User: Fold DNA-binding protein from Mucinivorans hirudinis.
Amino acid sequence: MELQIIKQKIFEVRGCRVMLDFHLAELYQTETRALKQAVKRNAERFPCDFMFVLTKEEANTLLEIGVSQNVIPPSYNFGVAMPMAFTEQGVAMLSSVLRSEIAIKVNIAIMRTFVAIRQMVVGYDELLKRIEELEVSTDAQFNELYQALTQLLSKPEPQPRRPIGY
Assistant:
C-alpha cells in the first residue's frame, strides 16, 4: 500500500488528524455500512478521542474542500448517517474489530503513514526554529549595517558660525 495514497485520505478535523469511514472501508475492501456496524457493535472500544461522528457543517466543509480532492464522494448520502472520523488510535482499534488479512496489512500501512506525517511535522518545526534563529541574527546584523549607512549618508548639522564683524 502506497503511503501517498493513504496520506491523501488523512484530514484535520477538530484539531485531530483523522481518516473517514468510507475511505477506511475502501482501503479495507469492505462496505462502509459493514465497517460502521462493526464499530457500533464494539462501541466501548471507540471513545470520543478514537472516533467521532462529523457534524453536517464539518462534512459540508470537507465536501467543499474536496471538490478537487475527492474528500467525500458525491454518492455519500448525508441523510442516512454522517461520516465517522477515526483518529490514529481509532484506526489502530479497528484492527481488533476487523480481522481480515487485508485489514491487517492496510492497518500497518496506515500506522506507518501517521508516523511519517508526525516525523514531517517535527522536521517542519525544526526548520521553522532554524529560520527564526537566522532571522534574529540577520536582523541584528542588518540593523547595525543600516545604522552605520544612515550615519555615513546623513548630512552633519551645520555648526553655528561666529558672526563676522562688529
Summary: Residues 3-123 form a domain with the Mlu1-box Binding Protein; DNA-binding Domain fold (CATH 3.10.260). The first strand starts at residue 10 and ends at 13. The helical segments are 3-7, 21-28, 32-41, 56-65, 88-97, 101-153.
